[in-house]
């Protein structure tokens, strides 16, 4: 294994093979658009049908064949509160296998730059707000998605271990709640924002007089458009080489009730809104401290209203082809 401790962040080679694991998903597809628009032409992606990242032998064969110079690891099994709390074994097992296989194979072929994409659910349920990167492993996780969080924490430590043992300049980024094109809008598997978009748009389409949302509406959440995320990730790949992971977000949050009101406005829903308080709220607040990212020279540019409008338009133009 070669020594890369002398690496310095720099503009990435637009000609080099660049593998995006999970290139059809919300984050991965945004990264693909970002890279393509930034002049990268040797992009590599495989669907889950073409390459099951849980299959270790196949993953190693793929890396030996393609030998990418850069990797963004955005592939993951993801879902909302219901999916996470119902299938914790699947979320833990699948994500650990995906991460371990990709990083071990990337390590074998000495991938120069790998960015592991985690999730803000890695932080303690009651972490001080806004959440700094050093809050990791300082308290109990949110029980409704602890298995997924543990998998992502393992990924962060995997990256740090590779840096210590091999000197490869790999990094990790922890985004806040994401939304945008290619999100999962399924009724049972989606996160809160796409679930709300689908619920309100369905109500508008059907002429329903009311919608019922989960919980009390009081938890506060921060949302980042996927296009902002991809911009931040390319920025980090070209400008950051630290051991610690980096929070990626807007630094602003709102209550779920406020988010629902904004979605109602964008979709044109004018009926009654009910709240099923027997359903779980999840973490009371989750706002990231994005000082480290800002100090590196990047801030979000897509406003929540603009992002919601763009996402609703995308959803309505793709709804007939979306997974259910």
What does this structure look like?
- It is a single chain.
- This protein is an alpha/beta fold.
- It has a domain at 18-183 and 222-252 and 287-302: Rossmann fold (3-Layer(aba) Sandwich).
- Helices cover 41% and strands 14% of the residues.
- The protein has 10 helices and 13 strands.
- It has helices at 26-37, 56-66, 81-86, 88-108, 146-166, 192-206, 226-239, 256-267, 291-295, 304-318, and strands at residues 18-21, 43-44, 70-73, 113-117, 171-175, 177-179, 210-214, 220-221, 223-225, 246-248, 254-255, 272-276, 285-286.
- The strands form 4 sheets. It has a 6-stranded parallel beta sheet with strand order 2-1-3-4-5-10, with helices on both faces. A 3-stranded mixed beta sheet has the order 11-8-13. It has a two-stranded parallel sheet with strand order 6-9.
- Strand 4, helix 5 (146-166) and strand 5 (171-175) form a beta-alpha-beta unit.
- The termini are far apart.
